[in-house]
Amino acid sequence: MPRIHFGSWAENAVSWLQTHLSWLFDVINTVLTGMYDGVNAVLGAPDPLLMAGILAVVAWWLRGLLPAVLTFAGFALVDSFGLWEAAMATLSLVLVASLITLLVAVPLGIWAARSSKVSGVLRPALDVMQTMPAFVYLIPGVMFFSIGPIPGLIATVVFSMPPGVRMTELGIRQVDGELVEAATAFGTTPRDTLTRVQLPLALPTIMAGVNQVIMLALSMVVIAGMAGAGGLGEAVYAAVTKVDIGGGVESGLAVVVLAIYLDRMTGALNQRVSPLGRRAAAKAASAARGFAFLRYRPGTAVATVGVVVLALVAGGMNLARSGDDGQNVAAGANVGHGRGIKLGYFPWDEAVATTYLWQNILEDRGYKPDVKQLDPGPLYTALAQGQMDLQFDSWLPTTHKQYMDRYRDKLTDLGAWYGPTSLELSVPDYVKGVDSLEDLKGKSAQFGGKIVGIESSAGMMGTLNDKVLKEYGLDGEYKVVSSSTSSMLADLDRAIKKKEPIVTTLWSPHWAYGKHQLKKLKDPKGAWGKGEEIHAVGKKDFGKDFPEVTAWMKDFKLSEKDLASLEVEIQNGGKGKEKESARRWLDAHPGLADKLAPVRH
Amino acid sequence: MSSTREVYVSRLQAEHLYKVFGRRPEAAVQRLEGGADRDELRADGTTAAVIDASFEVEAGQIFVVMGLSGSGKSTLLRMLNGLLEPTAGRVLFDGEDLTALSPRDLRTVRSRKISMVFQHFALFPHRSVLENAAYGLEVQGVARAEREKRAAEALELAGLGGWETSWPDELSGGMQQRVGLARALATDADLLLMDESFSALDPLIRRDMQDQLLDLQTRLKKTIVFITHDLNEAMRLGDRIAVMRDGRIVQNGTAEDILVRPANDYVASFIQDVDRSRVLTAGSIMDRTGRASGADGAATVPAATPLADLFASFARSAAPLTVTDERGEPAGVVTRDLLFAALGEEPGVPAPRTGEAPETGEIAEAGEPAEAATPARADEAEVSARA
């Protein structure tokens, strides 16, 4: 079987699109960003509890008093987790994505219902959309639209489209043929047959499709979070990559609150919008017994008035509050003059630590730093496209070689701030008699014959398997279990709590060395190779746009001890409080800020 | 009959209608015209649903198409208002060729001149009874107040006054079909197509609805094509009845024609279950040459009296009854022997028809023999299957 180079064709197609149709992507990007920002601004504007009240009134209108109370409680909980803005960003993303999806899906479904040919062509296309892993088009999405909510939005639209189309088609095809015939027999035009008979009767099924679309859209937000879509997805993703169990549970719960709310509301919407639904609701109401006030549901007009009143109160409060949005920058230190600077990081601990450290320092110097978490791929792409200004965690010359090679001309290397790094195997210090890689020989039984590794794609895993184990004659004795960094750390944590022996792959710098008492196994034969250095990398024109910061970066250095203590401080501070934790650490090291970012007079 | 044909303008005519489903239907029609048989076509994957159907329906008449399921009667009905396009043949209504109309003109005809009542009512579940009845008017573009007034009148006519605000799913089957009837009547269409409209109702309700339809018909004088699989219903309602089998019309005549002179064994086998005493009339069995002795002048009956109503009289006296025509003049007599002979007569063996395979009832050839076998109807040639 000859190799069919489908992948490279796709790659060529993507790069062709990128060069020739960039104007189109820019237009799409502008429109979608506008929609998203608009919705997000509206949802995010009111005070959290007022907004929760508005959502509760909607629930009251659609479902009754008890669901309204639960709605308010659920959203108040989200607010107390400190996830309100993230939740509203996610809600905006879901609403905009669902709206776009439905605008496309319903007409397509109608078309498919009327033509078997269209239906036949659509079916495999929908199957591909539904089953193709979202990552596959998320990365090209980043290339076309850069990081931010839009690639996530597009991925969400693609992923949630199929049920919308299918349910619309099904709903229309399900309408009793005799009814359609009756409409035709009375001289109804095909269009009127659609609007007067088929759509009203298909509406319950179509609404079930809408419900599916929204739920699928919500399920995509975590994945979209990896491409910088922000919101709860980013919160979940960040928590998971940092083994922050509490943060993960909280942000996960916030997703659940949103999901249940959206599910119940769209489910109940059917009763309000479709004539059949209204009939069913009226029947159920006349049959129900119990407390009348629990069953009371405000009419549409009353509910609208409620929402409007709450929205007006929210608007009034915002007006009253605005005006005290100043920044406290020491007069002589205002180098940035309010210039925005976009800092990107992927969730590696030293990246988080330095990014939030510099966020504090740059604010003190009068800049307006904007911090965003991304995966390495999207982040390098964004830097190369000038959508991001600076990131701190380029491991060179090996780990991030591919990105640097790819975007060499479009990036500025601002120099190393840490080095050398090292890769190693580590054991807890209660494991006696194992201090060097040589000591591992013959002790596999003690460690269950396994070395806990990280992602199999990581460079150090290859080095470990191909070189280190062979060099020390361990390759038959130990098996390297690949998992993920977070699982490895979780496993390490578990073993230490139970005082079990464990060997893990680890690297320096790493906060685990600050948190646990670990021994780096010595490598007398130098099998791991030479260490790397960690560089700060800026966009192409960084030196021109930010000359002062460029100068600071050149002199920026951090010792392993300082870095580890900063990382542990941030770990202890908890998720969502990184900036405050870094500030605390900075305050505990007086004079450091002036050393790192000297102000010339 | 021949005299009435000149009085009425012919309203609905079907001329050599064919409907073939499947690939290359036109070629199939040619083969059928060339004498091919339905089963041959089926072997090729094409289905001939209606084969060479021709008939006329006079204004104000109820024309019943009777046949078992699969006989093509519903397909035939749907060609009359263009829901199905005939593969060949024409449908003329008021002299206008419906098969030649543009889709837009055809829709206009459907909304104004033809309405339809369905087997399973086909009421719109998302509309109230009044909105359902007003549907046809809504399509015509009649203003709301006007159409609701007319729909309410139609409901009143169908015996459903006062139910306007109810919903279809709150009504019994019979009431739902009244809504269906009201919907069809509200548009004031001249032609009413009824597709097994009473078949889904239970027997008592069905009988009520039949009575109601006959009652309405005396006032409204619509032209009605009524499809049924029930011969008793056909006999009760139909001014004329066409019997269909395997896509062809095998006999077309009055109830009495069918009962007395079935065109073939197939039709004959149908009429065995019919209560002849309620279909046959004194006029149909009377001895035209005989005259009552005149001694007992009181014993006269109109020609239209069903035979069932003669028993009481013969129970009192064996004397022959004088039958009078529309003008009240004596037209013939019925004796007790004649009555018993008419009811006891084994139906179905139509006079001398030699060499005819009774099971197949092939009408491509059988058309002529059928006519030949019933010379009494020779003057009504338009009703024959091969007109």
From TrEMBL, chain A:
Pfam families, per database record: BPD_transp_1 (PF00528), OpuAC (PF04069)
Q: Name the keywords, alphabetized.
A: Cell membrane, Membrane, Transmembrane, Transmembrane helix, Transport
UniProt keyword annotation of Cytoplasm present: no
Looking up CDD domains in the UniProt record yields: PBP2_OpuAC_like (cd13639), TM_PBP2 (cd06261)
The UniProt transmembrane annotation reads 49-78, 90-114, 134-159, 213-233, 245-262, 299-320
InterPro entries, per the entry? ABC_Gly_betaine_transp_sub-bd (IPR007210), MetI-like (IPR000515), MetI-like_sf (IPR035906)
Q: How does it sit in the membrane?
A: Multi-pass membrane protein
Classification via Gene3D superfamilies: Dipeptide-binding Protein, Domain 3 (3.10.105.10), Glycine betaine-binding periplasmic protein, domain 2 (3.40.190.100), MetI-like (1.10.3720.10)
Q: Does the keyword Transmembrane apply?
A: yes
Q: Origin, by domain of life?
A: Bacteria
List where in the cell it is found.
Cell membrane; Membrane
Where does the record place the ABC transmembrane type-1 domain? 87-266
Q: Which family does it belong to?
A: In the N-terminal section; belongs to the binding-protein-dependent transport system permease family.
Q: What is this protein called?
A: ABC transmembrane type-1 domain-containing protein
Naturally occurring in which organism (per UniProt): Streptomyces hiroshimensis
UniProtKB/TrEMBL annotation, chain B:
User: What InterPro entries does UniProt report for this protein, alphabetically?
Assistant: AAA+_ATPase (IPR003593), ABC_osmolyte_uptake_ATP-bind (IPR051921), ABC_transporter-like_ATP-bd (IPR003439), ABC_transporter-like_CS (IPR017871), Gly-betaine_transp_ATP-bd (IPR005892), P-loop_NTPase (IPR027417)
- Signal sequence, renumbered to the chain: none
Establish whether keyword Amino-acid biosynthesis is in the entry. no
Q: Which domain of life is it from?
A: Bacteria
Regions of biased composition (Low complexity) lie at 354-376
Q: Could you tell me which SUPFAM superfamilies the record lists for this protein?
A: P-loop containing nucleoside triphosphate hydrolases (SSF52540)
Give residue ranges for domain ABC transporter: 12-271
Q: Which UniProt keywords apply?
A: ATP-binding, Nucleotide-binding, Transport
Q: Which Gene3D superfamilies match?
A: P-loop containing nucleotide triphosphate hydrolases
| Ranges of biased composition (kind: Basic and acidic residues) | 377-387
Annotated region Disordered: the residues are 344-387
GO-annotated molecular function: ATP binding
Query: What CDD domains does the annotation carry?
Result: ABC_Pro_Gly_Betaine
NCBIfam families in the cross-refs: proV (TIGR01186)
Family of the protein in this entry: Belongs to the ABC transporter superfamily.
Q: What is this protein called?
A: Glycine/betaine ABC transporter ATP-binding protein
